[in-house]
Amino acid sequence: MTQEQLSLSGLTRQFGVTRAVDDVSLDIPAGQFVGVIGRSGAGKSTLLRLINRMTEPTSGKIHFGGTEVSALRGRALRQWRRDCAMIFQQFNLSDRLDVLTNVLVGRLAEHGFVSSMLMHFTDAERTMAIEALDRLSLVPQALQRAGTLSGGQQQRVAIARALVQRPRIMLADEPIASLDPANATLVMDSLRRINREDGITVLVNLHTLDTARAYSDRIIAMRDGRVFFDGKPRQLTDDVVRDIYGSDAFGAFDHDVTSTAPRHVGVAAYA
Question: What radius of gyration do the chain's Cα atoms show?
Answer without folding.
Answer: 19
